[in-house]
From TrEMBL:
Involved in pyrimidine catabolism. May facilitate the hydrolysis of carbamate, a reaction that can also occur spontaneously. Signal peptide: none annotated. Belongs to the AB hydrolase superfamily. Hydrolase RutD family. It catalyses: carbamate + 2 H(+) = NH4(+) + CO2. The keyword GTP-binding does not apply. PANTHER family: AB HYDROLASE-1 DOMAIN-CONTAINING PROTEIN, HYDROLASE, ALPHA/BETA FOLD FAMILY PROTEIN. The keyword Hydrolase applies. Its EC number is 3.5.1.-. It is an enzyme of class 3 (hydrolase). This is Putative carbamate hydrolase RutD. Keywords: Hydrolase. Residues 14-124 form the AB hydrolase-1 domain.
Length: 267
């Protein structure tokens, strides 16, 4: 998979791995890089079958496979210990990594994620899937911002959204890949395993998220042995984009508060 390493070159700098949502590409994290790279070694990547990580995904593609292939890619780059910051699907990859590779994962941040799929989110995914299969890629892409961003933000950023739409159509990951990734996402259910995740986990949500009810994040935080919760009032499903300054400040504060003593001394 295509992977990029940026930020601090200090030998003792903690490593943050940023995992995107269903879109899968590293560019989602652009609003976070300036805030994170002065303090951390930051890894971004295009998930298998998306962006520059071209591949045909197999039948039965799963969250376990997503976590394993990321762990293997990181190991190939000499990265053995890291924290995971993931948006929606990316956050679930982080939880799966914490379960399957507990010796490698220090902390996990789950942005607008869940313990198990909510019926409302299931309905939203079905609508998006119906658009893709019955109308086409362009309709799927045009609808996507409605689930990601608040209406007033969309109204103020139409030129940007139009450019993003054109880019997403031109670089679409392919119907079969998307459907297999979506099936893996919808099938992920951590209720029977969450008690085994001992790492510090932050669930952070936005109250105006259209795609994932904000109440899913408190449920996740409460179920975790070492979970914590941050609630943002505004920003939609992609509040790390629409309210990046506020999101980045909250994230940096939590990372500092949960750092190991040696990391605190170095910061």
């Amino acid at each position: 998979m295509h992977l990029e390493i940026q930020g601090s070159t200090a030998e003792d700098a903690p490593t943050l791995v940023l995992a995107s949502g269903l879109g899968g590409v590293a560019g989602f994290w652009q609003p976070q890089l300036a805030a994170l790279t002065p303090h951390y070694r930051v890894v971004t990547y295009d998930q298998r079958g998306t962006g520059r990580s071209t591949d045909t995904l197999p039948d039965g593609y799963s969250m376990t496979m997503m976590a394993a292939e990321l762990a293997e890619t990181l190991e190939q780059h000499g990265i053995q210990h890291y924290d995971i910051i993931g948006h929606a699907l990316g956050g679930l990859i982080g939880l799966q990594l914490a379960l399957d590779f507990p010796q490698r994962v220090g902390r996990v941040v789950v942005i607008n994620g869940w313990l198990s799929l909510d019926a409302h989110t299931q309905r939203c995914f079905q609508v998006r899937q119906d658009l893709l299969m019955n109308v086409g890629v362009e309709a799927f892409v045009r609808a996507q911002p409605l689930f990601l961003y608040p209406a007033e933000w969309l109204a103020r950023n139409q030129e940007r959204i139009n450019a993003e739409d054109a880019h997403h159509v031109a670089h679409f990951q392919g119907m079969e890949n998307l459907l297999r990734r979506l099936h893996a996402l919808k099938s992920a259910d951590f209720r029977a395993h969450v008690a085994r995740i001992s790492q510090p986990v932050l669930a952070i949500c936005s109250h105006d998220d259209l795609l994932v009810p904000w109440s899913c994040s408190p449920q996740l935080a409460q179920a975790l042995p070492n979970g914590s919760l941050i609630e943002m009032a505004w920003g939609g499903h992609a509040m790390s984009v629409t309210d990046a300054d506020n999101f980045n400040a909250l994230l940096l504060r939590w990372l500092a508060d949960t750092a190991a003593p040696a990391q605190r001394a170095a910061s």
